[in-house]
Amino acid sequence: MHPVLFDRRLIALRRARAIADAEPGIDFLVDLVAADIAERLSTIVRPFDTAVVIGGPTEALSRAVRDSGKVGRVIRADLFVPGIGTDPAPQVVLDDEALPFADDSLDLVVSGLTLQWVNDLPGALVQVRRALKPDGLFLASFVGGDSLTELRQAWLAADSELATGASPRVAPFVDVRDLGGLLQRAGFALPVTDQDRIPLRYATPFHLMRELARMGASNPLVERRKSLTGKELLTRAAERYQAGFADPDGRVRATLTLVSISGWKPHESQQKPLQPGSAKMRLADALKTAEQPLDPT
Fold it and tell me: Which stretches of the chain are DSSP H helices?
């Protein structure tokens, strides 16, 4: 049984509220991910008949896939609730912990900014692999690595000083070094992982906290302290943030790491590693050097 870290119902409620109160510019992360997916699709020469694009709240991600010219049919799927009303409504509203797609039914699955909130990431990856046809492709980008490490440290310091012990306030994010193994365990072939660290700056720590709330990304942890955060504790966390992570101009830094992964559902046409001992040339010959015997001592 996998641990339950995230309150998925709370995530859905906050996301719905964030969409209802959407402000211009708050979806900048979606635009970054859409550009990343478009760039990765541009390097792939084969076409895809049917793609499902999971991510919102705008149509930016599905538009990037559609505009690639590589996909015949693009199905836009949103998480929990429909996206912003000015965009075309998604065809599917789903929970990415329980995908509704039949096995071997899709050629391409794209996920943007959703996998950081799943409780069972290996299980979610297995569901994607099952939904893909053989030689189908999975592309995803989500928040990971050392994202929001500054906020985590500031809250830890403030809690230690004023509260009765630390409370988890910033979600744990998966490390890119673990993702290749997770993709292989889920049954994907040719896994690729990468990360892009994006420095952000804000006028004050309160501006960062407010932006997280506007994105529906405030603390979603099941083990979070349920009581209201008092003014004294909030002020102390902001002071610790300002003291530790402010630039000379007074603005504060925030780390955002976007993790990118890709994997293919296995197919006999894909490249496979050679069997040990099957090489046709010795390494010494290839390097045009003399082979030196091992010193037995």
Answer: 8-20, 28-42, 60-67, 121-131, 149-162, 176-185, 205-214, 231-245, 283-286
Write out the DSSP string of 64-90: HHHHTS-EEEEEEEEESS---TTSPPP
Note the pLDDT of residue 229: 76
Residue 91's CB: how many other CB atoms inside 10 A? Answer: 13
Amino acid at 15: R
Q: What are the distances in angstroms from CA 6 to CA 27, 86, 153, 221, 242? A: 22, 30, 20, 5, 28
Overall average pLDDT of the 89-112 stretch: 92
Q: Mean pLDDT of all residues in the chain?
A: 87
Is the CB of residue 169 less than 8 Å from the CB of residue 224? yes
- Tokens representing 183? 């993709």
DSSP 202: E
Q: Is the pTM of this model over 0.90?
A: no
Distance in angstroms (rounded) separating the CA atoms of residues 275 and 49: 34
Kindly list the structural domains of the chain, giving each domain's residue range(s) and its CATH number in brackets, ordered by start. Answer: 8-267 (3.40.50.150)
Output the furthest CA–CA distance in the chain (Å, rounded): 75
Nearest CA to 173 out of 141, 142, 212, 144 is that of 144
In the structure, what pLDDT confidence band is assigned to residue 127 with cuts at 50, 70 and 90? Answer: very high
Nearest alpha carbon to residue 219 among 161, 151, 159, 163: 151
Q: Phi and psi of 286, rounded to 5°?
A: -65, -35
DSSP single-letter state for residue 237: H
